[in-house]
Amino acid sequence: MPRRKENIAIVGAGKGGLYVLQMLLKHPRVNILHVYDKDPEAPGMVFAREKGIVCSTNTTYPELWDNRDIDTILEVTGSETVFRALGGIKARRTALIGARGNRLFFAMLADEARMRERLEEYQDALEKLVALRTAELQQANEQLESKVEELAVTNRQLEELNQAKTRYLLRSTHHLKAPFAAIQSYTDLILKGYTGEIPEQTSDIVAKIKLRCEVLSTTIREMLQLANLQTIDRNEVRMDTAELNQLVGDVVEQTGIIAAGKNVHLTFESGPEPANIHCDPGQTARLFEILIKNAIDYSHQGSEVTVSVKTDGKQATVAVKDRGIGISPQAKKKIFDEFYRSNEAADKHPDGSGVGLAIAAHIARLHDFRIRVRSTVGRGSTFSVIIPMAGVS
Ligand code: ADP
Fold this sequence. Notes:
By secondary structure, the chain is of the alpha/beta class.
């Protein structure tokens, strides 16, 4: 419940009375009922009249006689006689405070008024500051919103450009396929002697041309594959159920001939139980083919590459482990980038394209597979593919 206002009468409206009046009028819980002074033009009287307060020059103070509505009479004349007279007429419950004996009280009143004034000033300043900051924040927010919109537009444009670039790459790379196939067939014809006998030196050079053509054809195939993967979405993958041990075992078998050609021992450790997964089997086999071929290409002669399948009920892990050249921590950050090849890799296997792992990463992205790489330079690498099992959520 809000507290009742304090009803106050002021007797004496000279300079002191005016001051007290001004201070009290600022107080929210004060109600000035009467102001008295024998001089109607005393500054406090003029001020009180302006404020609509009842003023009186009647020094018998009839309105105060035994008036219980008055809580406090403030005597500011400083006259002992007036103080005593007021003491005689006031109601018993009304407090009478005289200026003379209560300097401390009036000083406190002045302090409180000053503090109140300062508080109001602070409050004003604070409100202004809050308004200013709010406006600034609003402006910043608007700027941010428009920046976000701008970025979204730029992003869309970049995506469109990227797609256009991919389409262009796809088209131009596609056009390269036929000429290279033709060169390859011509070199075949020459080497098989259909165009007549050729000196041994020429035959060597033609054989080299044929080899380069094969490497370039592989690179073109890989670039087309990468560009195709970049344009498809997860929901466009043709999902099927495949048994992982079978799928990986087949790839190991197919790549066995490459391993044998490079004198690398390729072994397969299948899991103890069948492991069914959801995937596009062709793409998934391609992913393992890339990892196994890399393991062979970056291995030393006579060393081992092990491919294993392990399951824990929820997920399967296919690990391709080699004891080859290894990958430095700096190179490890870039190996999935298109066309990246480390210098050591280029030395060891000059015919690489730097596209294989980018293809592998896209296939993994489209299937929700994770690829983890552990490697030590000079000791070898393990590429692990973590695959969710079918029927496990
Ligand atoms: P490529 O093998 O044709 O160069 P990839 O995209 O398959 O292209 O691989 C990118 C790079 O990653 C390789 O050039 C090589 O630096 C590194 N890399 C990949 N696999 C291995 C591995 N098993 N051992 C060492 N380095 C590897």
